[in-house]
């Protein structure tokens, strides 16, 4: 009779020693001076002080997100730090459109094998991105799943908690006919439409030889999602700010409509949209239709602010202090909660 091979957890693909060594490195990344964080890595869950004395009626804002197939490109081209910034910035933007102050980020790293240097880069990048948005990486989960996910593959996701004063929630309900629609420029493709980008790369590999604004094509694609919190936070309690929409999958039409109250529509003049060079390159190599691009990409508009007409100049000046040049692209009209396009995109 053949002797059975002695098995172990390590032989099945999970090395507890490597996990523990990696956690020691994570502890350094999670060090914070944030007094609201009440415990450290190693606890079963994170403790965060929920006392908000500066708020009369604090409301928590919660969101979970993942960076889509952009993470495939990021890991292929060794751009770990940018994809982590993408994910955190996307989360923050989704929270702040409610008028929220970001508080805590929790990450989740799923992989076929824990490679200590890679995982520590990820955690450090998440921590840094959180700090840049004035919040804290408070913990998370690293899940080692051999046989489920191939070695070298990482799937990232994360969650955010923010807080907003109930009476200052920004939900679009104050939007009225005659309000102005302002565009805040994106930094590039952000985290949407990457499946189409990858398809274009497969069909037209020469696109990778392109240089966009002095950057190689892939570096331009992997430019992190722009975060708008620092530029917008000073406007959150201003009566002139009526609504905010983060422009992600579905483009302007399928995101701005989410905040329009009944009886209104938004009319957007496409000729005013300042298209970024990356989208011109994608259009040329992919022979893309304008209509499809408008439903897939942000086209250079990463965030939309709807403001009262007499507040538009003040809003633009405030955002400009953070280096973001905001511009008008439309108005609010009577309608049925839709976003209507006029004019045409200017590609020249």
UniProtKB/TrEMBL annotation:
<dbReference type="GO" id="GO:0006189">
    <property type="term" value="P:'de novo' IMP biosynthetic process"/>
</dbReference>
<keyword id="KW-0067">ATP-binding</keyword>
<dbReference type="InterPro" id="IPR004733">
    <property type="entry name" value="PurM_cligase"/>
</dbReference>
<dbReference type="InterPro" id="IPR016188">
    <property type="entry name" value="PurM-like_N"/>
</dbReference>
<dbReference type="InterPro" id="IPR036921">
    <property type="entry name" value="PurM-like_N_sf"/>
</dbReference>
<dbReference type="Pfam" id="PF00586">
    <property type="entry name" value="AIRS"/>
</dbReference>
<protein>
    <recommendedName>
        <fullName>Phosphoribosylformylglycinamidine cyclo-ligase</fullName>
        <ecNumber>6.3.3.1</ecNumber>
    </recommendedName>
</protein>
<feature type="region of interest" description="Disordered">
    <location>
        <begin position="1"/>
        <end position="24"/>
    </location>
</feature>
<feature type="compositionally biased region" description="Basic and acidic residues">
    <location>
        <begin position="13"/>
        <end position="24"/>
    </location>
</feature>
<keyword id="KW-0963">Cytoplasm</keyword>
<feature type="domain" description="PurM-like C-terminal">
    <location>
        <begin position="176"/>
        <end position="338"/>
    </location>
</feature>
<keyword id="KW-0547">Nucleotide-binding</keyword>
<comment type="similarity">
    <text>Belongs to the AIR synthase family.</text>
</comment>
<dbReference type="GO" id="GO:0004641">
    <property type="term" value="F:phosphoribosylformylglycinamidine cyclo-ligase activity"/>
</dbReference>
<dbReference type="Pfam" id="PF02769">
    <property type="entry name" value="AIRS_C"/>
</dbReference>
<dbReference type="GO" id="GO:0046084">
    <property type="term" value="P:adenine biosynthetic process"/>
</dbReference>
<dbReference type="GO" id="GO:0004637">
    <property type="term" value="F:phosphoribosylamine-glycine ligase activity"/>
</dbReference>
<feature type="domain" description="PurM-like N-terminal">
    <location>
        <begin position="60"/>
        <end position="164"/>
    </location>
</feature>
<keyword id="KW-0658">Purine biosynthesis</keyword>
<dbReference type="InterPro" id="IPR010918">
    <property type="entry name" value="PurM-like_C_dom"/>
</dbReference>
<dbReference type="InterPro" id="IPR036676">
    <property type="entry name" value="PurM-like_C_sf"/>
</dbReference>
<dbReference type="GO" id="GO:0005829">
    <property type="term" value="C:cytosol"/>
</dbReference>
<keyword id="KW-0436">Ligase</keyword>
<comment type="pathway">
    <text>Purine metabolism; IMP biosynthesis via de novo pathway; 5-amino-1-(5-phospho-D-ribosyl)imidazole from N(2)-formyl-N(1)-(5-phospho-D-ribosyl)glycinamide: step 2/2.</text>
</comment>
<dbReference type="GO" id="GO:0005524">
    <property type="term" value="F:ATP binding"/>
</dbReference>
């Amino acid at each position: 009779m053949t002797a059975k091979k002695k098995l172990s957890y390590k032989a099945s693909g999970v090395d507890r020693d490597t996990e523990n060594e990696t956690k020691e490195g994570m502890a350094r990344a999670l060090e914070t001076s944030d007094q609201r964080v009440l415990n450290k890595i190693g606890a079963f869950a994170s403790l965060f002080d929920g006392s908000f004395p500066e708020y009369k009626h604090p409301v928590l804002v919660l969101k979970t997100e993942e960076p889509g197939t952009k993470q495939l490109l990021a890991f292929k081209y060794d751009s770990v730090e940018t994809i982590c910034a993408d994910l955190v910035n996307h989360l923050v933007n989704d929270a702040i459109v409610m008028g929220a102050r970001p508080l805590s980020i929790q990450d989740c790293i799923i992989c076929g094998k824990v490679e200590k240097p890679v995982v520590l880069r990820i955690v450090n990048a998440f921590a840094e991105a959180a700090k840049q948005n004035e919040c804290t990486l408070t913990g998370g989960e690293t899940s080692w799943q051999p046989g489920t996910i191939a070695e070298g593959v990482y799937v990232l996701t994360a969650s955010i908690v923010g807080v907003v004063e109930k009476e200052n929630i920004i939900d679009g309900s104050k939007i009225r006919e005659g309000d102005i629609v302002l565009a805040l420029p994106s930094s590039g493709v952000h985290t949407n439409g990457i499946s189409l980008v990858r398809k274009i790369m497969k069909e037209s590999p020469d696109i990778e030889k392109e240089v966009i604004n002095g950057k190689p094509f892939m570096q331009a694609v992997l430019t992190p999602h722009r975060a708008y919190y620092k530029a917008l936070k000073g406007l959150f309690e201003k009566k002139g700010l009526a609504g905010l929409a983060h422009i992600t999958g579905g483009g302007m039409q399928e995101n701005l409509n989410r905040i329009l109250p009944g009886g209104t529509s938004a009319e957007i003049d496409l000729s005013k949209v300042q298209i970024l060079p990356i989208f011109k390159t994608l259009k040329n190599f992919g022979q893309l239709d304008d209509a499809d691009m408008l439903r897939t990409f942000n086209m250079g508009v990463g965030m939309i602010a709807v403001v009262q007409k007499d507040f538009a100049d003040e809003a633009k000046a405030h955002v400009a202090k953070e280096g973001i040049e905001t511009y008008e692209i439309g108005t609010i009209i009577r309608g049925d909660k839709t976003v209507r396009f006029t004019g045409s995109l200017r590609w020249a």
